[in-house]
Write a sequence for this structure.
């Protein structure tokens, strides 16, 4: 089977195996289905949380040529440039930037924390920014901290750090704030692949809109 046919069949199986009424509808369901497709984990349907404005905010940002900031190269590589280029969007990850490595060592903090600071200084000047965080709770916590300090909020935070230390807590903090729209996965589950899949689902919606005229 061709890849596109496999994907269509996978989506059809997910649709068929999700009892009605589904927990999400419309564009939210397209995002949720993509995450189940990525993980083969139907439990995500009970853990996935959308801010009421999240999908519209993400779509508007992508229509406006957003810069997507990821906390891992894995997430960055999971968002194909062919898809982003068609939208006039870019994706950056500063985790391996030499300046980030030096600053993190000097400050005794994680590279993820420093990368957030540097991304806020440079990414998306004059345009919308989406943060897609799938690995590092410290990145999400630092982003929220900077917002509390007066940093202009990004268009959307996809906050899905995975793990046992501060992962669930960082996402709880994300859901507790109301300054910025978010998509998150409550609890310990998450990961770079799911953060990337969320961006991809939103990008596919915009690309389909353009194709339909």
């Amino acid at each position: 089977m061709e890849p596109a046919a496999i994907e269509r069949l996978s989506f059809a199986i997910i649709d068929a195996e999700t009892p009605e009424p589904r927990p999400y509808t419309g564009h939210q369901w397209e995002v949720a289905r993509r995450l189940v497709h990525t993980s083969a984990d139907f439990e995500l349907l009970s853990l996935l949380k959308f801010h009421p404005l999240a999908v519209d905010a993400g779509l508007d940002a992508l229509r406006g040529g957003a810069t997507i900031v990821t906390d891992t190269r894995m997430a960055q590589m999971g968002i194909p440039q062919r898809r982003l280029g068609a939208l006039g969007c870019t994706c950056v990850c500063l985790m391996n930037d030499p300046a980030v490595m030096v600053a993190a060592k000097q400050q005794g903090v994680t590279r993820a924390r420093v990368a957030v600071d540097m991304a806020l200084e440079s990414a998306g000047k004059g345009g919308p920014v989406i943060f897609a965080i799938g690995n590092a709770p410290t990145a999400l916590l630092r982003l929220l901290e900077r917002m509390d300090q007066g940093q202009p909020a990004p268009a959307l935070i996809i906050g899905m750090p995975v793990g046992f230390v501060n992962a669930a807590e960082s996402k709880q903090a994300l859901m507790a704030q109301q300054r910025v729209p978010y998509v998150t996965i409550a609890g310990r589950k998450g990961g770079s692949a799911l953060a990337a899949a969320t961006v991809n689902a939103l990008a596919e919606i915009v690309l389909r809109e353009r194709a339909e005229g």
